[in-house]
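Schema walk-through. Below, the input block comes first and the output block second. Nothing else is stored per chain. Lengths vary across the set, and this one has 70 residues.
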Amino acid sequence: GDVEMQGAEIQLGYQATDALSAFFSLAHTDSEVQDDLPAIFTTPNPDEPYLVATGGKQLVDTPDWTSALR
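--- output ---
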């Protein structure tokens, strides 16, 4: 099905010397599955497919926030 996804990211870096530097990043992602998905099994009435209620939910394995510091 379709997924609507949007987000933003910021990155900051600083190099104090040749041997000392710092890096920071922060990202936000907003994702939403747009449609219910048909199930992989058949229903007693083949004319009425069973739908798994996925519409309106967040995409799996997509965190709202991520960050890194090194």
